[in-house]
What does this fold into?
Amino acid sequence: MFRKLYYNLSPLGRRIVRRVFYFPYDFVALFRDKSNLVPSKGKANIGRGDFVKTGDKFFNNICKHSNIQPDFKILDIGVGLGRIARPFTNYINNNGIYTGFDILQNDVEWCKKKYSQFPQFNFDRFSIRNDLYLPNGKIDAQEFTFPYPENYYNLVLAISVFTHIQAPALENYLKQIKLVLKPEGVCYASFFLTDISQKYSLFPIEYDKYCLHNSKLKNANVAYRSDYLYELVSSLGFEILSIKKGWWKTGSPINEFDFQDIIILKNI
It folds into this structure.
């Protein structure tokens, strides 16, 4: 019920509600010592999870499953306020590059300011239309071209990106990732993956390739049929290195990898 009411608000309305909801916590946090790279809870456009612990968990899992090196060139799609970028500041060396882009101006400006002491880290903003976050964006996601060199990045991250875009945009983004990844480069991405034979209460609106949580706010949460996705990535020239099931289906995080499903792809 709360989720439905929350999604009925405008992007600005959701930001205001979040700021008000987390104000007591953020007010107390003003008097604590904390990292300059950790935003207030009211500012972040992510779930309720701890910003630092969640970022550290992603970092550790990425290092474990992506064969990453300190001199890698990394592209973080939907970087937000740097939840995953933050732990990489202690890992990337002077030969490495961390590029993050997002559609939200405030998030990108915050990152540019906070990460100014790290010359290997760069942040870009693109006005890509998304009914959940930026309904008045100027660029159609299915037509957006990544403005980065081809065969350049060793690793592309897409966490909570493909869970908020429609199939044409997904297909375009995967094509763009293919272009910017080096041969043998890796894409570490999260999804909601469904089976055509099962029903899911979080995604009651069903289509051939995907399911939606909300018919009016289509990018609120998007789940893809696993058979469609596996065929798509294969047709684009990716090899699936690993699939880690999330606990969104069971509601229990015990013994599961993460809330969302994780797919690790290699550019072949």
